[in-house]
Structures are given as structure tokens and as C-alpha cells.
């Protein structure tokens, strides 16, 4: 158990599965006080029971709705009086070639991946400014560093998360707030299930079956960033499976 993590109030979005669920489990073991949000409340409640954190620690949250994100953060403050860490994790990855014109998928990625991250920042920033402390961890992707066929819009949203995070880093220096971007490669989550284009879904499934590493790898990166002394700000972590070329 890390002394830098034990007792910290941590809000996690997208916590019902994948990266969010893995990091919730790890941070609970490290002694953090968790407040978890996701759209699937039944899964959140099961996770809360497994972690023995109480169902009051979870709240149904769609990050594409700014009011719901604000309500999640306000709930954390009501429970614990502060928020030490926000992990903006919720995301979608419905890859497809632009010529397929899957405009609804484009809108969903922008709403969840980019606007959801912005809504999280907006919700938590006033409290962290008041505290003169805090840590905002935004989840980007390897796709936020490079783009491949079928991934143009997804890469655009994840690149935008990196740009927003760097601007945020510079703006929050007077408030002693730390910022971290974590950019995973292929990690075994439900993310490929969001691909609606059949041809792309087949190739994506094969790629993940061959290369994906456990989501606990992401949790370890979060713990590393959070465990640093307060004067150390880990601004970006980019990681992949060792075998992943892309």
C-alpha cells in the first residue's frame, strides 16, 4: 500500500469494465477512497460489493452529459469533502473508414472521448483550485500519437485529449494541481466491442486477440503516476504490449 495513495479520494469514470474496473480494484487495494461512475449501474454495484466500498460509492454516469459528470463529482465532495484525483477514463472506439460515413459513431466518439474529458475537468477543477491540490489523469491512446486507416476520428479525439491536457497542465500550475496523460496500446477491454463496422470489427478483434495485454497494466501506470512525491508531476505515459508494432 502506497502512502501517496492511501486515503486519497479518487473519482473514476467508465469504471464498470476494462481499464476503469481494473484501476478501481488496484486503487481499492492501495487504500484509496473511491467514487465510481459509469452508465451500467448494475455492474458498478456488483463491483462496489466486490470491493466492499458500499453502493453509495457508485453513481450512474453518462459522461456525454455534463450535468451527470458534475453530479458524480459533487457526490464525491458530499461524501468525502474533497476530490484528490480524477481519472477521465470513459471512452469509445468505433473505428471505420471515413468513406463509410458513420456519422453517428463520429458524434459518439467526440461526445464521450473529448467532451466527456472536458466535462470531467470542468466538474472537478473548482474544487481542486479551492484545495490548492489535486491530480487529473486523462486517458488518451497510442492512437492519440499516430493514426491508421479506419481510425481517423478516434485518433482525432485522442489527440485532442492530449492537447487539452497539455493546456490544462500549463494553466493549473498556480494551484499545485498535477496532470497526467496515459496513452495505452492494445489492452484487453470491451473497447473493440464498440466497433460497428463489420469488416473493421473482424480485423480489430483479431488484432486484440493476438496482442492485447491485461488491463492491470494500465492500473500499474496510474499507481506509478499517483505514487510520486507531490513535487513530481508525471505528465505523460505511453505504453504498448511488447509485441505491438503499431
Automatic annotation (TrEMBL):
Species, as recorded: Asaia krungthepensis NRIC 0535
PANTHER family in the cross-refs: DEHYDROGENASE/REDUCTASE SDR FAMILY MEMBER 11, DEHYDROGENASE_REDUCTASE SDR FAMILY MEMBER 11
Coiled coil spans: none
Family per record: Belongs to the short-chain dehydrogenases/reductases (SDR) family.
Domain Ketoreductase residue range list: 8-190
Keywords linked to the UniProt accession: Oxidoreductase
InterPro entries: KR_dom, NAD(P)-bd_dom_sf, Sc_DH/Rdtase_CS, SDR_fam
Protein name: Oxidoreductase
PROSITE patterns: ADH_SHORT (PS00061)
Amino acid at each position: 500500500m502506497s502512502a501517496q495513495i492511501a486515503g486519497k479520494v479518487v473519482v473514476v469514470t467508465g469504471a464498470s469494465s476494462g481499464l476503469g474496473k481494473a484501476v478501481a480494484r488496484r486503487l481499492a487495494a492501495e487504500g484509496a477512497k473511491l467514487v465510481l461512475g459509469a452508465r451500467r449501474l448494475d455492474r458498478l454495484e456488483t463491483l462496489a460489493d466486490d470491493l466492499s466500498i458500499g453502493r453509495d460509492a457508485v453513481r450512474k454516469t453518462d459522461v456525454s452529459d455534463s450535468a451527470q459528470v458534475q453530479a458524480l463529482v459533487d457526490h464525491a465532495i458530499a461524501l468525502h469533502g474533497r476530490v484528490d484525483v480524477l481519472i477521465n477514463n470513459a471512452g469509445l472506439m468505433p473505428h471505420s473508414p471515413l468513406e463509410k460515413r458513420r456519422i453517428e459513431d463520429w458524434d459518439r466518439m467526440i461526445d464521450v472521448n473529448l467532451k466527456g474529458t472536458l466535462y470531467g475537468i470542468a466538474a472537478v477543477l473548482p474544487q481542486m483550485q479551492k484545495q490548492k491540490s489535486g491530480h487529473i489523469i486523462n486517458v488518451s491512446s497510442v492512437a492519440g500519437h499516430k493514426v491508421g486507416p479506419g481510425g481517423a476520428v478516434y485518433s482525432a479525439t485522442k489527440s485532442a485529449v492530449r492537447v487539452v491536457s497539455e493546456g490544462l497542465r500549463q494553466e493549473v500550475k498556480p494551484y499545485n494541481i498535477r496532470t497526467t496523460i496515459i496513452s495505452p496500446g492494445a489492452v484487453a477491454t470491451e473497447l473493440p466491442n464498440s466497433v460497428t463496422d463489420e469488416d473493421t470489427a473482424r480485423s480489430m478483434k483479431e488484432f486484440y486477440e493476438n496482442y492485447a495485454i491485461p488491463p492491470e497494466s494500465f492500473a500499474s501506470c496510474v499507481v506509478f503516476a499517483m505514487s510520486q512525491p507531490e513535487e513530481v508531476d508525471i505528465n505523460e505515459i505511453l505504453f504498448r504490449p511488447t509485441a505491438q508494432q503499431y
